[in-house]
Amino acid sequence: MKITLSVIKADIGSIGGHIAPSRRLLETVREYIAKNGSGLLTDNYISHTGDDIAILMTHGQGVGSPRIHKLAWDAFLAGTQVAKEQGLYGAGQDLLKDSFSGNVKGMGPAVAEMEFEERPNEPFLFFAADKTDPGAYNLPLYLAFADVMNTPGLILSPNMAQGFRFVVMDVNHTEGDRVIELVAPEQIYDLAALLRDPERYVVESVWSRATGEQAAAVATSRLHNIAGKYTGKDDPVMLVRVQMNFPATGEVLAPYAHGHFVAGGMRGSHQLPLMPVALNSGISYFDGPPIVSCAAFAEHNGRLTEALDAFAHPFWNTVRDRVAEKTLEMRRQGFFGAAMLPMGELEYTGIMEKLKALDSHFTVRGETPASAPRQVLAR
Ligand code: 13P
Ligand code: 13P
Ligand code: MG
Ligand code: MG
Predict the structure, then answer these.
(1) Ligand 2 in contact with 18 (CB < 6 A)?
(2) Which residue among 53, 58, 235, 298 is least enclosed by CB atoms within 10 Å?
């Protein structure tokens, strides 16, 4: 049986700044999907990670279906209404366009989808991250699908011996989808050369070379590319099928024990480690640290089991403690150097006006100052 998994997520408002949506907001989205998704969806699961609400759907409509995308968009619109009524912060934050045009891609919400022939048993993982951008998944995907130090299945399982194909997107190219395909293991150096720059090159999908089946789908939207200015962080979602021809669940989860540094945190402008957290967690310290949650499912004929919380296990408490330590260490250097994102990312924020104003006050020693009166420095 062919089935499509679609996850569409958006920040449509939250309590206390960018912490978490209200219960009523979450319920509104749930009720909207339950009422309007019947007959269209086989199943759904609605959750939040930080201030983002994700709608996970199973259906038979294929990838990029206007009906599915419209359902999610309208659910977020209904939610935005409630967010406004409750005075939530950033009501409708990620709904960047006024009218729906067939696909939520390029409109603000993040989307990850894949259609596949269902296996007799179909385990998969649904990841959602808050206060970071899609490149945050680059390293974990590289480690899980291309690095034998992380994934012994690459040498132990005959099904994985041929390796995986990565589709990587250049997210700075806004005129269309600019992508490259690289295969592991032969091209891992090329792959690493791109993935080291997670703000520009983002893994969009991963495929089994043995069977051609899709293993992973990642949301690649960069909000500043849509809005042209800072409107919040992209907060990406990801779907990963596991076991058999794909890495085991534990191999896909293992890289999150590193707490690698990602773009995000306060005002989307910092470098902080990614903390694996329980489902439906909020945000706290310094509008961060960036968080990632993982719901594990089994699925049959499009019906989902209950979600298991992959990062709730006691093992992850030690990881969280370490990530908290790394976060505090980085925050000790405030605005300085590596603590903040490079200029290319900050150019979507207000710092550009400040630098422009300062620029006119620079002088070159020995050169005659321009005769024009200087601007007064903006405070
Ligand atoms: P089980 O024997 O529990 O199915 O585990 C198999 C496995 O490969 C786990 O990584
Ligand atoms: P979100 O993208 O999660 O709304 O966070 C925005 C922000 O600026 C936090 O400081
Ligand atoms: Mg927000
Ligand atoms: Mg968010």
Answers:
(1) yes
(2) 298
